[in-house]
Amino acid sequence: MKIGEGKGVDAWKYVTHLCRPILWPACKERMIAYPNFRLMEDNAPSHDSDFTNCE
Which domain of life is it from (predicted)? Predict the structure, then answer.
């Protein structure tokens, strides 16, 4: 995934390149430290796809 490709981020890239390796582990750490922690996303298509929601 390169900045400036101009192709956007689909659900697969979002989950495999960002969520699994970076975002979700960081969220798990935050949830341990702050039980009321909530992750807010902006309803971009990749955030609200069936693939993302199944993960």
Answer: Eukaryota
